[in-house]
Amino acid sequence: MPLKDPEERRAYKRRYSKTPKEKERLRRYNQRPEVKEKVNQRVRDRRQWWQGYRERRKERGRITERRKYRETRIALREQVLALFGSACPRCGYSADHRALQIDHVNGDGARERQEGGYSLSWYRGVLRSVQAGEQRYQVLCCNCNWLKRYEDGTTGHDQKPISRTGLPGGQLQLPDGS
């Protein structure tokens, strides 16, 4: 190679590529059908690769987002359970935190779900409420929570009271009379 010094080589290429003769030669070369097709194929390949790349990144982002959301929700739930002592106050159950539920002391959970739903914001609200010393929530195991609902006489989402009239066989009389 005649120009071994990189600076001189760059200067030579700048001078050479700017000459009208070289510009005309490049224009004619780029107008050839086989060169155009080669360039167009490269452009198509590059577009296809980027499209696939974007899809892969988007899916990876969704997975990461779901994982972060789940981890945050679990961490908030564990913080709430830790504030309550991670044990059921009625029976003392503490073997598995997944069987512990956050109970609304006043039985207003259905109304609260309609207003705000259960999500990270709900757990944050519970955490703020507990830290502020409000007595709106408690931790119960699944069995105690359902027993409390039965004892309070609520059927769940619609908050209709269960009539406890003494029917034969210990059956309950539902609000619709059945």
Task: Produce the secondary structure layout.
Elements lengths: L5 H12 L2 H12 L1 H52 L15 E5 L4 H8 L3 H12 L5 E5 H11 L26
Antiparallel strand pairs: 1-2
Helix pairs in contact: 3-5
Report on the structure:
- The chain is mainly alpha-helical and 178 residues long.
- The chain has six helices and two strands, in the order αααβααβα.
- A two-stranded antiparallel ribbon has the order 1-2.
- Helix 3 packs parallel to helix 5 (120-131).
- The chain is rod-shaped.
- The N and C termini lie far apart (100 Å).
- 6% of the residues are buried.
Low-confidence stretches: none
From the spread of the alpha carbons, the general shape counts as rod-shaped
Strand content: 5-15%
Amino- and carboxy-terminal Cα gap:
100 Å
Q: Please provide the ordered H/E string of secondary-structure elements.
A: HHHEHHEH
Structural class: mainly alpha
Helix content: 55-70%
Mean pLDDT: 80
The side-by-side strand order for the widest beta sheet comes to: 1-2
Rg calc: 35 Å
Number of strands: 2
Mind summarizing the main beta sheet? 2 strands, antiparallel
Number of helices: 6
